[in-house]
Amino acid sequence: MSIKITFKKNIAAKNIKNYVLFVNEDFRVNGLTKIQLQKDSIFINKVIKSSVTKKKNFLTINLNASQKITFIKIQNSQLTLENEKKGADFFEYIKSNSLTDITLLENNIKNTSITNKLFLDEFLHGLELKSYKFNKYKSKKADENYKIFISCNKNTFNQSKSKKFHSLLQGIALTKDLVSEPGNILHPDEYAKRLLKLKKDGLKVSVFNTKQLKKLGMNALLGVGQGSIRGSYLVIMEWRGSKSSEKPLAFVGKGVCFDTGGISLKPAKFMEDMTYDMAGSAVVVGLMKSLALRKAKVNAVGVVGLVENMPGGNAQRPGDIVKSYSGQTIEVLNTDAEGRLVLADALTYTEERFNPKFIVDLATLTGAIIVSLGSEYAGLFSNDDKLSNQIVKAGLSVDEKVWRMPLHKNYDKLMNSKNADMQNINYVGGAGSTTAAQFLQRFIMKKTPWAHLDIAGMAFSKYGGALNSGGATGYGVRLLNELIEKNYE
User: Fold this and answer.
1) How far apart are CA 241 and CA 298, in angstroms?
2) What average pLDDT score do residues 412-432 get?
3) CA angle, 163 as apex, 161 and 168 as ends, to 5°?
4) Alpha-carbon distances of 257 from 27, 194, 254, rounded to whole Å
5) Where in the chain is the domain with CATH 3.40.630.10?
6) Of 252, 255, 149, 147, nearest in space to 194 by CA
7) 3 state DSSP class of 149
8) Where are the domain boundaries for CATH 3.40.220.10 in the chain?
9) Cα gap 123→104, rounded to integer Å
10) Pairing of strands 299-309, 320-323
11) Cα Dmax for the chain
12) How far apart are CA 36 and CA 44, in angstroms?
């Protein structure tokens, strides 16, 4: 993060260089004389009564040669998302106005129309989400470290102790960090090592290496990684926050740390972006960390398949046939349709071993979903209406939207193979995202409620969004946390 928030017991406004006042929609400040000297209060009121001022959401004025005041116009919203977006907008404001050291007067909120007791938590959460920056490999880092002090009455008020917001922030930051790492650093061997560190957060972490996966018969997953000098792994993260007998919620992620396309090599242009082909796994990792940090009252398991798809001398060839963990055989017609092979084994194993209430998988699976939905919605495919509706509703609540796409048995014929049980790509053409999901559905063997989220258009943004800066978005952590919190705790 490029911002540091510190809480301090009451600081007199007259002793603050730059401070912030929250004002009502009509730019009215109640109780101003309690905050400022009488003469300054008169001057402030003159400024904020201006018709031009009232059209602004943020305004900074010079009170004197050594002191500035910034006004934030707020409305009485009980919607967490609106308050978070206001905080994110404020970060953009202080960034563009070079306000690097400011103090928010928490008591001032009581003098506005705000009745939402979590307003400041939500406001600061949005501000922190927007402030994320990945500059780990910059030898000279820009001087953009922002300090925000919260002046408040009670020592007990501390946003960093708010489990929900703190855990979400930590989980999302971890997801963004993982997605942002270059492929030469975050290869499968390193990724698996990092996940073992999550034990300190209270997660049970198990790592299956290449040798162990061979014994298990995960040949679909292993085939993807066999051209790389790096190992291939299946990593399982377990959180037990409910009764030991209660079925867990299961989340499965595609972790292709770098995707060259294998022998079916991708074009060179934009191949550097394929470092984020492991974003589905990163969402699962960030979610599991969040659940552990906030001690969620639920049982959950996260399963990620970690591979690197390289065109080495031992790489899988187009036309190879592999036997999956489920026992079904797959003809690999295109080695660049690799994510579904990784997920195939991970899905069947997760269902068989954990017998979960539901399975949600996430993957940057197809370019076709970007053609369909752009970067506004993730594609949702599911065998269960109840689970689908819950995911759609959760997405709208946190502004991580999904759009349900069709599955139908008639699509199966596009994935049937003459030489094996199925092929990994539809060469007839069309319905690229749907046929990929239809392929995955074949590996849900016990009809467990299942949803597949194709997040290819959502995991990375060159422009940024309402609550994230450009780059890795962390899309999916808030969505799945909301799904769990509102329906399963």
Assistant:
1) 5
2) 95
3) 120
4) 50, 13, 9
5) 164-487
6) 255
7) strand
8) 3-159
9) 11
10) unpaired
11) 87
12) 9
Q: Which CATH class is domain 3-159?
A: alpha beta
> pLDDT at residue 295 above 90?
yes
Taking only the tens place, the pLDDT of each residue in 423-468 is 999 988 899 999 999 999 999 999 999 999 999 999 999 888 889 8
Query: What is 36-66 written as a DSSP string?
Result: S-HHHHHHHHHHHTSTTGGG-SEEEEEEETT
Written as six digits, the tokens of 20 are 């912030």
CATH superfamily of 164-487: Zn peptidases (3.40.630.10)
CA pair distance 453, 380, nearest whole angstrom: 5
- Token code pair at residue 399: 């502004």
Nearest of 186, 234, 191 to residue 210 by alpha carbon: 234
**Going by C-beta distance under 8 Å and a sequence separation of 6 or more, which residues neighbour residue 152?**
7, 8, 9, 10, 106, 107
How are strands ordered across the β-sheet holding 422-423?
Answer: 320-323, 329-332, 422-423
| R_g of the chain, CA atoms, integer Å | 25
Question: Which region holds residue 264: left if phi is over 0, alpha if psi is between -120 and 50, else beta?
Answer: beta
CA distance 399 to 60: 29
CB atoms within 10 A of CB 38: 8
pTM of the model: 0.95
What would the two tokens of residue 36 be?
């400022």
Question: ∠ CA 374-379-380 to the nearest 5 degrees?
Answer: 165
Cα–Cα distance measured from residue 157 to residue 177, given in angstroms and rounded to the nearest whole number: 29
Query: Active-site residue numbers?
Result: 266, 340
One DSSP character per residue, 226-245 reads: TTSSS--EEEEEEEE-S-TT
